[in-house]
Each structure stands twice: as C-alpha cells, then as structure tokens.
Amino acid sequence: MDIKMTTTAFELPGYKTIENRGVVRGVLVRSRSIFGNIGAAFQTLAGGNITLYTELCERTRMDAFHVMIQHAEQVGGNAVIGIRYDTTEVTSGVTEVICYGTAVIVQ
Questions:
Q1: Rounded CA separation 84/74 (Å)
Q2: 3-31+64-106: CATH number
Q3: Quick check: 81 and 99 in contact, CB under 8 A?
Q4: CA distances from 13 to 3, 53, 66, 89 (A)
Q5: pLDDT digits (tens, 9 = 90+) for 32-88
Q6: Which of 23, 25, 29, 74 has the CA that lies 20 to 30 A from 86?
C-alpha cells in the first residue's frame, strides 16, 4: 500500500470509501540499550535535543506504522483512515508503541 493512501482524517480526499475492513494495528515493544542511555545522558548534560532518543522514537513509530500497513493489506484494505499513535511504558526503559487506524477499501 502506498503511504499516500493513509491519513489521520476520517476520509481520504478524492476517494470514496466503499467498505470498512475494521481496525488495524501495528504494535512494537522497544527497550533502550545501556549504550543508548549513556550516550543520551551525555546529551542531556549538554542540553537541547536528545538525538539518540529522538531517532529511537522515530524508528519505532515508523516500524509500528509499517506493521499497521501490513495488517491493513492482510485484511484486504487499500487505505487506512483515522490513524493514531499511543504509547505505554510497560516497565522502566521498556515502551510499547501502537499505531492504529481503520482499514478501508476506497475507489
């Protein structure tokens, strides 16, 4: 599926939704490595953007997004609307990221 066929809105401009295929999701659970924590601690001392954590968050969200796209394809959708993200700290240093939306067929 082309990522242009995804949106946080509840309709895809220029397309008509003809079938709802249900909720789809991409779930990832990630932990920070000891080396990443040490590097981030040094960045914290310097102030500003903590790029090690920013990159980890970006990668994790993108990976969860791609898992959601795969799930949408498995249920026969050609688009995903209403996309949202949520995170939960499972335990100290371990975080769940979920990307979810509604798989639909549009034309």
A1: 19
A2: 3.30.110.70
A3: no
A4: 14, 34, 22, 35
A5: 655 555 555 555 656 666 677 788 889 999 999 999 999 999 999 999 999 999 999
A6: 74
User: Domain residues of the chain, as ranges?
Assistant: 3-31+64-106
Which tokens belong to 59? Answer: 């990668």
Amino acid at position 90, single letter: V
Phi, psi angles (nearest 5°) of residue 41: -60, -40
pTM: 0.83
- Strand 94-106 to strand 79-91: parallel, antiparallel, or no bridges (unpaired)? antiparallel
The label of the residue with tokens 């949520």 reads 86
Quote the CA–CA distance of 5 and 83 in Å, as a whole number.
Answer: 11
Sequence-ordered list of residues with C-beta below 8 angstroms from that of 32, at least 6 positions apart, any chain: 40, 53, 56, 93
CA distance 6 to 88: 24
Q: 73-92, pLDDT tens digit by residue? A: 999 999 999 999 999 988 88
